[in-house]
Amino acid sequence: MQPQIILLKEGTESSQGKSQLISNINACQAIADCVRTTLGPRGSDKLIVNNNGNATISNDGATIMKMLDVVHPAARTLVDIAKSQDAEVGDGTTSVVLLAGELLRQVKPYIEEGVHSQVTIKAYRKATNLCIEKINEIAVTIGKTNEAEYRASLEKCAATAMSSKLIHGQKDFFKKMVVDAVLMLDTLLPLDMIGIKKVPGGGLEDTLLVQGVAFKKTFSYAGFEMQPKSYDNPKIALLNIELELKAERDNAEVRVANVAEYQKIVDAEWGILYDKLDKIHQSGAKIVLSKLPIGDVATQYFSDRDMFCAGRVPEEDLKRTIKACGGSVLTTVGDLKDSTMGTCERFEEKQIGSDRFNFFTGCPHAKTCTVVLRGGAEQFMDETERSLHDAIMIVRRAMKNDAIVAGGGAIEMELSKYLRDVSRTIAGKEQLLIGAYAKALEVIPRQLCDNAGFDSTNILNKLRQKHAQGHKWYGVDIMNEDIADNFHECVWEPSLVKINALTAASEAACLILSVDETVKNPKSGGGDMGGMPAGRGRGRPM
Ligand code: ADP
Ligand code: MG
Known about the structure:
Elements: E1 13-16, H1 18-36, E2 46-49, E3 55-58, H2 61-68, H3 76-88, H4 93-112, H5 117-138, E4 140-141, H6 147-162, H7 171-184, E5 194-200, E6 208-210, E7 212-216, E8 230-232, E9 235-239, H8 259-282, E10 287-290, H9 296-304, E11 308-310, H10 315-325, E12 342-343, E13 346-352, E14 355-361, E15 369-375, H11 378-400, E16 403-406, H12 410-423, H13 429-441, H14 443-452, H15 456-468, E17 474-477, E18 482-485, E19 492-494, H16 495-514, E20 517-520
Helix pairs in contact: 1-4, 2-3, 3-4, 3-16, 4-13, 4-16, 5-12, 5-13, 5-16, 6-7, 6-11, 7-11, 12-13, 12-15, 14-15
């Protein structure tokens, strides 16, 4: 009888072996089941309420996953891949989670039967590489030579990204706007150069695209109304200076012998302020923007001299103005000269809904634009913003990397068929595992059918037959409960979205398969498990 050797601290939970692997897989499937119903044009939305009582309605996989606050350590991998897909390509976040979940589900029986996880990982990696090769082989490049055709192809990609969202009814309106917005940017296509502002009220179709910077009018004092509200080619001073009379410190003590001396102190203070204002005026600036407040004296001063001012401008708006109009944020008025001030072709203040907006258009430097979103409920506009983000990302992707494939399950069915063909040429366990991968790929068209209420078995059979006959772009036809050539039907997606989704999903699946022991340390892992008898949770979800 050997004494038990204790390696880990008391209260540490550890579970290992096949059963814990299965439990991790089950947890991942539970996650995939959460987002399953949101896939595709007929997918439903989720309403998530957080502990502050704020409700979010979303169809975006990454958003849902972020809000779910998953605690299971293995299942969190899926949250991470959804996030990475969102950051990398911006769309396909639901698909990636679903694929990872399905890859694991298909391999489960083999794990249960005792196939070593390293064998499955190797087969999955091989299958992923085969798929990527195949996508690159069959992807179609959109030509850049014909301007109108190029634009139309970008619009089709944007429309496909939006067709699964709440705003699918307005996708014809928004696809133009999204493509316009992205085409306005310069070659690097920086995403932060597209600002999105939300103004409640009005219909979705009242949304407008501003070629330049726009932000909401800031808080202003009396005298503001007298200031001019439009300029051509103004000089813009961007400041980080408070233009206000300072209130005396509460407990400061100043001893004065007579009233004249007190007057001197007051005068000095006004002197400082007027000195600053004079310098700004002399610099020739017509528009003064400041991060800090601009008080009533300054507002009045500016309106007397036909200048416009806005204080407390949010930092991000100021940054975008700098990038667009040039100049830099100054902390002293001494540095105001032409090279530190920005300019634009036209400045205007306009009314949008119940808000007033400052528009800076025709900016010389970085190309930038602002989308002013209109719409009813706040949640609705939030979701519209997320949907536009997806579409913008997709258009950027398609511009950077101009190969596209057909969506609606077409590319997945083609890959699935290809893998099945390849697997038949391989002997041994790998054949079965690559077959499992092929089966997992079918989850996308199947789910698209299920979410639309179609008979998925029937449609999948039709699709398999078409693909076997060599019609590689056949996918689900959401409008007619049938199959269709989705390339012809213009359901297009950049091939990079699919490549990234496949790589991320299979990496996540392999990661989970490679874990053979889960150790939970009570100190670092949130605390409340301390003192529980060791060994609990073995093979059970934690
Ligand atoms: P994700 O977060 O993965 O982008 P979506 O809910 O946007 O999830 O659904 C995307 C899926 O819907 C893709 O597989 C895409 O090919 C498919 N899809 C989009 N538009 C259509 C359409 N008009 N007909 C059929 N399938 C479509
Ligand atoms: Mg999408």
